[in-house]
Amino acid sequence: MGLLDRIQQTDSRSDEPDLVSHYRDRLLEEIDLDELSRLKPTQRRARLERILSTLLSADGPVLASRDRSVLIQRVVDDALGLGVLEPLLADESVTEIMVNGPRDVFVERLGRVQRVATTFASEEQLYQTIDRIVSTVNRRVDESSPMVDARLPTGERVNVIIPPLALDGPSLTIRRFPRPYRLGELVEKGSLDVRAATLLGACVRGKLNVMIAGGTGTGKTTFLNALSGLIPAHERIVTIEDAAELSLQQEHVVRLESRPANVEGKGQVTIRDLVRNSLRMRPDRIVVGEVRGGETLDMLQAMNTGHEGSLATVHANSALDAMGRLETLATMSELELPVATLRDQINSAIDVIVHLERGADGTRRVREVAALVSRRREDYQLAPLMTFEPDPVGPDRKVTGRFVIHPMPEDLRLRLQRAGETLAPHEPSGIAP
Fold first, then answer.
1. CA pair distance 203, 405, nearest whole angstrom
2. Contact, 159 vs 148, CB < 8 A?
3. In CATH, what number is assigned to the domain containing residue 158?
4. Is the peptide bond before 61 cis (omega within 30 degrees of 0)?
5. How many angstroms separate the CA atoms of 85 and 118, rounded?
6. How many structural domains is the chain composed of?
7. 413: domain range?
8. Residues 28-85: pLDDT tens digits?
9. Which distant-in-sequence residues (6+ apart) come within 8 Å of 261 by Cβ?
10. What is the value of pTM for the model shown?
11. Nearest-angstrom CA–CA distance, 202 and 352
């Protein structure tokens, strides 16, 4: 077995020496940690690579160029970053990394989940990686606290769950945030067409309250970010998220992020706390990354008390299901309101629902745009503004179809007209390039 194979296949049950661990320990003996901490990340990596190259040359024998490069990268990744996961994090096509124990690593690429050859040398090495992640956010994971949500300094969201809750060993999930897309780019990708984009652009600029609904992995945050790009630049925007994913380009943006309790169980700041605080910040728009609890009622009340043009996302399987979901979430507030009162709040607050769907081929697109036309305490009634009509799925599972525009309810058309939006669905004006 060659050196490259030994580096890539080192196993805790093998008699082969763990070269990565060996040279990582040697490297740590040679460096000045105080000096290293004062360097920029790129300078830090370059310094370690030079020191390690010197160590390898001194040890001999001369290694093949490829073997030497792989070993240096693995050792430096292990010393500075997340070890064997660093190449996956550097791969821009990877949107999710799922580690199911030391031997099973999966990634999501282009909407499809696939297994990769990457493995950890041992369960201990996986635990070391997990500890490195949670320590950066002043958290710990052990039997007394076996579940942790955290965020890497580079922005990726991380979830960790370990035994005894995870029966087959520690599980690590890293969600990478895709680069922010403009609405015009989503049109080019086929997520919606020009007419639907023009319609939604008018709704955002016309200060309608828009709720984006969809299941896990349908691209709700990506779409929310794209829609928020159409908010006029002069408006004050407050964004509220569980983990900061949005990347708004406007000048006047205040970004708020919730905070979990510390190891003593204190210091928690919830989404609901932030929604309530945002009302005192004189926002023109409130953008909530996802409503998932009692903050839903606060968000609805904000929409009903002059904070028009707000945007939010919610987990739901259809546009109509989103209304029932909002109703359920609003009951999680400490205020015990009758269902009829909650229905009145939702009917008064929400103007448009955008439902996203992930196709059998992994593509994400807008399945439906609907206006909520029910009033007061009526049962929820939706009027379709745009629907995607798919063709029958063939053997290749490729999803094709067409976007169909439906007549707009007269009261909604008049609201947009009063806001200065003369909707012309065939014209692409107002879509960010």
1. 15
2. yes
3. 3.30.450.90
4. yes
5. 8
6. 3
7. 183-418
8. 667 766 666 566 667 766 777 777 777 777 776 566 677 777 777 777 666 666 778 8
9. 267, 268
10. 0.75
11. 12
